[in-house]
Amino acid sequence: MLVNVMENVVTSILDLNKKKYPDACFCQKCTDDIKAIALNKLPAKYVSTIKGEAIVRATETLTAQNKTDIDFAIINAMEFVIKNPRH
Fold it and tell me: Which domain holds residue 39?
C-alpha cells in the first residue's frame, strides 16, 4: 500500500467546496483536472501504512496553515478549470 495522503485530503475538501461553486462543472474530467492542478501546488505526503496515513492526517495536513494552503490550491484550481474547461 502506497498512498499520497494529500490526494485524499484534496478530494475531501474539494467535495466540501463544490457547494460553494454551483455553476462549476464537476464532471469526472473537470474534477480530475482540479485535483491534478491543486496537487501539483501542494507537497506530497506518501505513507505505506494505514497507521501512517492517520498520523499524517492528524499532524501534517490539518494544521491551520496547511489547511489554508490546501484550500487556496483547490480554489485556485477550481477557478482555473471554470475558466478553461476541457470536457
Answer: 3-83
